[in-house]
């Protein structure tokens, strides 16, 4: 069960894949030593003449059973191993060495991520060693017997089981899932059954080679080639079906995301699953050398963005990846505009349209978040004194102009760390930090002083005052209770004659 994955690799996954490859190299070195120790069997060169081209083809075209991101690929390369083990019945070290030298380069030159290449190469060598030990331990003296076939099938079962376990460990570490869950996925047993059938072709070809004329042996290439071609077509069809499904899922998700951050995450996740190799990213730069990409609409701060993916060296894969990036860019463009409009509408729903301050909804949300975090804050509840008289004498337009000017003075008085809002009518509130004793009371007095100064309006001068209630947050406060205490303190300031601030104490 080979690995076919294209997601970002955590360091633990890279370590596992590299360790598997290192063990595979150790097996290769051991096979070389065993071959040297057996007298440097010259049959190795003859075996390599057949093994190199056949091994390359069989390694590059496995059979796809499930998925494309963590799917099961039934390898054909072990067919060659079991052919060599049967044909070179008395020289198993030569057979294993020839198979390893023929298939390992094909794994390492495969156009996948380098970690997948290392893992698949190392895993195949380790599984090949285990299969060789089991098959050789069970094989009879005469290779053209049912017992030899059983030995080959036992070796094939060992190969598949070890390869499946190693793949499950690697995928589980990469995606932080349980190894048992990867081993017990539905395609595992189907893949194992198919692998035993495929492995028997190796024995069949060797048996024909040992007992029949050479031209008959050559005929076995035809059914083997037919199986490889059919497997390649099946794999391509499975990949395209899975990729089409992934593209549909991406389109659906693009229509459900509500924030720009969710949009970027969805693009990178689905795009990476769709690409033939590498990972799709949303970057603030155009594609560079060895990359393909398409522009996206600007982000929340107006910065330009691009969908960027690694360029594939394979022409068919590159063409498909280009179409994937183009399709995602088109889908994303509509989603970006929709998300921007939704975020703008959400922001507008939290603003007072006249003054540009936050409205009551925005203030209560921010206040609730502050008290939930046990932040040291206080609320200033500000009600204007004499505002109705301005409306009655100078008109409602002057009243609106006055509210805008009040909001400007309020911003300038409470400081950058405070957050003022208009609750409605001539009522304002300020959420400000309460870190040092007496600071919030001084801020309340400063607001009263600032709003007592005359306003020069278009319709004429106007003088008002402000009654301010101050309520520092207490441990365990609820937002509504804190705002209600500040409101009550403001009314206490009104009853005392207005144009003053009152600190909420003793239940006031």
Portion of residues within helices: 55-70%
Which of globular, elongated, flat, extended, rod-shaped describes the shape? elongated
Mean pLDDT: 82
Main sheet specs: 5 strands, mixed
Tell me the count of domains: 3
Alpha-carbon Rg, integer: 37 Å
Specify the oligomeric state: single chain
Distance between the termini: 73 Å
The level-1 CATH class of the largest domain: Mainly Alpha
The helix/strand class is alpha+beta
Structure keywords:
five-stranded mixed beta sheet, elongated, Alpha-Beta Plaits, 17 helices, disordered N terminus, Arp2/3 complex 21 kDa subunit ARPC3, alpha+beta, three-stranded antiparallel beta sheet, 3 domains, 508 residues
Structure characterization notes:
The protein has helices at 11-37, 43-60, 77-87, 92-108, 114-138, 146-175, 179-183, 187-211, 214-219, 221-254, 260-274, 315-349, 360-372, 387-394, 396-414, 439-452, 479-495, and strands at residues 63-66, 72-74, 281-283, 291-296, 305-310, 377-385, 419-424, 427-433, 455-457, 460-462, 465-472, 500-503. It folds into three domains: 11-211, Arp2/3 complex 21 kDa subunit ARPC3; 250-348, no CATH class; 360-503, Reverse transcriptase/Diguanylate cyclase domain (Alpha-Beta Plaits, 2-Layer Sandwich), CATH 3.30.70.270. The longest helix has 35 residues, at 315-349. A five-stranded mixed β-sheet has the order 7-8-6-11-12, sandwiched between helices. A three-stranded antiparallel β-sheet has the order 3-5-4. α1 packs antiparallel against α6. The radius of gyration is 37 Å and the shape is elongated. It has 508 residues and is α+β, with helices and mostly antiparallel strands. The relative contact order is 0.07. It is built from 17 helices and twelve strands. It is 63% helix and 12% strand. Keywords: Membrane, Transmembrane, Transmembrane helix. InterPro entries: DGC-Regulatory_Protein (IPR052163), GGDEF_dom (IPR000160), Nucleotide_cyclase (IPR029787), Rev_trsase/Diguanyl_cyclase (IPR043128). This is Diguanylate cyclase (GGDEF)-like protein.
